Sequence to fold (101 residues):
Amino acid sequence: MRALPKPPNESALNASPQIVSKPKIKRERITDSVAKRRAAGSDLGGRRERFTDSQVENARRLIDAGQPATHVARDLGMSRATLYRRMGELDARQWITSQAP
Fold:
């Protein structure tokens, strides 16, 4: 003998709008928090940079001297793509500071 499935509970049906709105509320809270931190000039968090600007500059000198970028990156313990990205970020920061009056 097979049991018939139970009809849905009315309280479960009424609870679903609350479940849908929780991610929206969380997103609003995060957006507000980030906006406040940016306005205050605070750090937004994230992963700490493991390599200093001087290490990236030294890596650039080695690459300019003829060392393969892959070898230089591996010696530093990062991928070649990360090395190129960090060199680009460093260039951008130096350009911005040189343009400031």
Summary: The two ends are 85 Å apart (CA to CA). DSSP finds four helices and no strands in the chain. The chain has a mean pLDDT of 82. The CA atoms of residues 24 and 66 lie 53 Å apart.
